[in-house]
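## retry 2 of 3
previous attempt timed out at serialization; input unchanged, resubmitting
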Amino acid sequence: MNTNIKKNKSLFVSVLAILLAVILSLTLFGCNMQKSVNESVATPQESEITNDFTAEIVNTSYVKLAVSAAYAAAEGGSVSKTITATVMPATAVNKAVDWSVEWGDSSNTATVTNYVTVTPDSNGSISAIVTCRQAFSGTILVTVTTRESGYTASCVVTFAGVPTDFSVSGSVSPSGGNTYNLGIGNAYTFDVGLINPFNSVGSAYNNINCFVSGVGSINVGYMEHYNATATDVWYETSNKVLTLDSIKDNFITASYSNGKLTVTTIKSVESYYSAKTRMDGGRTWGYSDKFRSCVDDCYFTVTLTEATSGISKVMTIRFDNTVVTSVNASVSEMVF
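## retry succeeded, writing output
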């Protein structure tokens, strides 16, 4: 009886060991299958394209493309952007690539390089310049191919009429660059438009906004002006510095609507104070935060932006230094 029990136990242990071995083998086989699926890579000449020219484009497991967001003026009324390829893995020895350009629609027989060209920075370079020479319809493919193994990535180029600059014109012309000298207490209107070298701005680019900034800082303090003696007395302990941007609304406003920019000048920086108090029946005036001097160069900027394209234009606004900033009467008091 004891012998049979021992034999049964031995048989049970053997069967259990076999089952465990089978389960372990199946588990390892399953892991190997999962690893094979996860590590699968694209084959040469395989590519996945996107219509977003400015986004990073990942095409295969071996090479990807990134396009710069900024446009640059090129020769002959064209615009250019930089395109860069990244060859994987990072440890690859031969990262040389070739660039090419072709129509997305193979039935298009026009010379593609009349519209878009791609110029590598050097022979085999992973960076190149894509230049749009004139407006076109349809799509154009810029393709990079690794010299080793022939892996490719492509970028789809379309023409949407992206603006590259603003046009601004009005009764006041800039005195130099984008600097405008404006008088005080006036409203100035400017015609604003969007332009590009192709004279063809797309209708999608019409989201224009403007905002004003103050540049520089001023010294201010508490001052009492005595009419009887026409003298000013400053209380030095009240002195402080204010940024022009924090008080800009006292001097200038700007608004944009339907192609028109309106800039309104209110008063000079030199005439600024935050509050005015009359004392002694008007014989004395107290000024809080009265302007004393500029800490540095003080002026304003009006910035125009087109939200869809991201382009902007900055107008520097300076006030005419011949404007009135104060006045005194010939006598301080009369008796009748």
